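fyi for ur records
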Amino acid sequence: MGALDEGPLDLELENGVRLGSIDLGFEEEPETIAIEDAVRVLLHGLGEDVNREGLKKTPFRVAKALREGTKAVHEF
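which gave:
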């Protein structure tokens, strides 16, 4: 599946946030982690603080929605 096969993103942002190593206690599936990392990068690119209380769970919520929304596609 391309980038998802490469495992989680391991990147340190300018503000010291380390992506791919943030332990938020969510699912540890590589696909979910890759999506969460991508969402964190997008949020950071928008100037958001990914560690802000209101955004901490957003990467997982997005990953969960995408995985559940495409689940039927992968079942066939």
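Confidence is low (pLDDT under 50) at residues 1-8, 21-26. thats all i got for now
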